[in-house]
C-alpha cells in the first residue's frame, strides 16, 4: 500500500496534501502527559521503546495527521557521544560538561561507535513498523550538526550564542572539528534509522538563523548537504527533508543547493518566496505560524492562504515550527482537517 506522505515527498499524485506537525507528539496531549508521568521523566521516555512507540502513534489517532515522527530528541546524540544530558523541569536541556577544549572533544565517542549506542531509537522504530497502519509513514530525524553543536558548546539553550559564535570568529578550525565529529556520527545515525525502518528522514537546523547569511553555508548548510548526500548515495529512494529555521535571506539570495527532496519552510519565510526560489527543485513543507493554532479562525485563514499559493505544486502541510504545549487539542485537530479539506482533489 502506498503512503500518501512518502508519495508527496516524491512529488507523486496524492488524493489531498498530507499534513503533520513538528513536535506533534508532546505536552499539548493529555495522553502524552500520562505516559510521560508513568516513565518518570522525558529522557526515560526516550529510552523506553514501548512507551516511545505509544506516544509516537498518539497524534495519528487523536489529531489525524498523515505521518508519524519518531518520538525521541535531537540531544540523545551528544548524550550517547558521552556528554552528560539532563532535562531540567522549567529550564530545558542542560549538558553539565560543555565542550571548552580539544581534550573535551577528544574524549567524546565518534563515528559508528557512537551511533551504535542509540539502540533504543532503532528498537522504537522497529516496534513502530509493526504497529503503524500500512498507509502511514514514519519520519526519522536528527539535529543538524550546527544546532547540536550550539548545545554542546553552550551547555544549554541560549539567546546570544556567544560561546559558539566566539569560536566561529576566533577559532573556526575548532568549531569545524566539532562539526566534523558530529556530522560523522549523524551520517551513521541516519543510515541506522533507515535500516531499522524509517520511511523518510528530516534534518532539523532549529538555530540556523543564529548564523549570518555569509557564514551559513560554511558552518551549517554544507554539513547538512553532506549528510543528505551520504543518505542518498546509500538509499536514493528514501526522501530527505531539510528544515533550516529562519533562513529567508538565504533563500532570497539563491544560496540553497543539494541533493534532497523536501525543503521545510519556517513560518518567518513567505511561502510565495520559497515557491518562487525553490518550488521547481524541491517539494515544500510548511509553514503555518504555530501560534495561529490558538484561534480556529486564524488557522483556517492561513491554511486557505497557503493552499492558494501551493495548489498544483509539490507541497506538504505543516507548521513553520513546533506546536506549543498550551494549544487546545481541538484546534490541532481543526488544523489537520482543514489542510485535508482545502486540498482534496
Ligand atoms: O516532533 C515530535 O513530536 C517528535 C519528538 C521531538 C522532540 N524533540 C520531543 C521533545 C523532536 C523531533 C524534537 C526535536 C528537537 N529537540 C529540536 C528540533 C526541533 C525544534 O523544535 O526546533 C530541538 C531544538 C530539541 C531540543 C529540546 N528538546 C529542547 C530545547 C527542549 C526543551 C524545550 C521544550 O520544548 O520543552 C526539548 C524537550 C522536548 N523534546 C520535549 C519533547 C516532547 C518536551 C519534554 C517534556 O515532555 O517536558
What can you see in these coordinates?
The chain has a single domain, classed as Alpha-Beta Barrel (TIM Barrel), CATH 3.20.20.210. The protein is built from 16 helices and 9 strands. The protein has helices spanning 4-9, 30-39, 42-47, 49-63, 76-81, 102-106, 111-116, 119-131, 145-154, 162-170, 172-196, 213-234, 248-252, 271-278, 296-310, 329-342, and strands at residues 67-69, 85-88, 92-95, 137-143, 200-205, 240-244, 262-264, 283-285, 315-316. The strands form 2 sheets. Strands 1-4-5-6-7-8-9 form a 7-stranded parallel sheet. A two-stranded antiparallel ribbon has the order 2-3. Helix 12 (213-234) links the parallel strand 5 and strand 6. Helix 9 packs across helix 11 and helix 10 (162-170) crosses helix 11. It is globular. The chain binds coproporphyrinogen III (CP3). Coproporphyrinogen III (CP3) binds next to strand 3 and strand 4. This is Uroporphyrinogen decarboxylase. Substrate binds at residues 23-27, 73, 151, 206, 321. Catalyzes the decarboxylation of four acetate groups of uroporphyrinogen-III to yield coproporphyrinogen-III.
Amino acid at each position: 500500500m502506498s503512503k500518501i506522505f512518502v508519495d508527496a515527498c516524491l512529488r507523486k499524485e496524492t488524493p489531498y496534501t498530507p499534513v503533520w506537525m513538528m513536535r506533534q507528539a508532546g505536552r499539548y496531549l493529555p495522553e502524552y502527559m500520562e505516559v510521560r508521568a508513568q516513565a518518570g521523566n522525558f529522557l526515560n521516555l526516550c529510552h523506553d521503546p514501548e512507551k516511545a512507540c505509544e506516544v509516537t502513534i498518539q497524534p495519528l489517532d487523536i489529531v489525524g495527521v498523515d505521518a508519524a515522527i519518531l518520538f525521541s530528541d535531537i540531544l540523545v546524540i551528544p548524550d550517547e557521544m558521552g556528554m552528560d544530558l539532563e532535562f531540567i523541569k522549567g529550564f530545558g536541556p542542560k549538558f553539565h560538561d560543555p565542550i571548552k577544549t580539544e581534550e573535551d572533544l577528544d574524549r567524546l565517542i565518534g563515528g559508528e561507535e557512537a551511533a551504535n549506542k542509540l539502540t533504543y531509537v532503532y528498537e522504537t522504530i522497529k516496534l513502530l513498523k509493526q504497529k503503524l497502519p500500512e498507509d502511514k509513514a514514519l519520519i526519522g530525524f536528527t539535529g543538524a550538526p550546527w544546532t547540536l553543536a550550539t548545545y554542546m558548546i553552550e551547555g544549554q539553550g541560549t539567546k546570544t550564542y556567544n560561546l559558539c559564535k566566539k569560536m566561529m570568529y576566533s577559532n573556526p578550525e575548532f568549531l569545524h572539528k566539532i562539526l566534523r565529529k558530529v556530522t560523522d556520527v549523524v551520517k551513521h545515525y541516519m543510515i541506522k534509522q533507515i535500516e531499522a525502518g524509517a520511511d523518510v528522514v528530516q534534518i532539523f537546523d532549529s538555530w540556523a538563523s543564529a548564523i549570518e547569511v555569509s557564514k551559513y553555508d560554511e558552518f551549517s548548510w554544507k554539513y547538512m548537504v553532506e549528510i543528505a548526500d551520504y543518505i542518498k548515495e546509500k538509499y536514493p529512494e528514501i526522501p530527505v527533508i531539510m528544515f533550516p529555521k529562519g533562513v529567508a535571506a538565504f533563500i532570497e539570495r539563491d544560496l540553497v543547493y543539494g541533493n534532497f527532496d523536501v525543503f521545510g519552510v519556517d513560518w518567518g519565510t513567505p511561502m510565495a518566496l520559497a515557491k518562487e526560489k525553490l518550488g521547481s527543485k524541491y517539494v515544500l513543507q510548511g509553514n503555518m505560524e504555530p501560534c495561529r493554532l490558538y484561534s480556529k479562525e486564524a488557522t483556517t485563514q492561513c491554511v486557505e492562504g497557503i493552499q492558494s499559493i501551493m495548489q498544483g505544486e509539490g507541497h506538504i502541510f505543516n507548521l513553520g515550527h513546533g506546536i506549543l504545549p498550551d494549544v487546545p487539542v481541538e484546534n490541532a485537530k481543526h488544523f489537520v482537517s482543514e489542510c485535508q479539506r482545502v486540498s482534496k482533489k
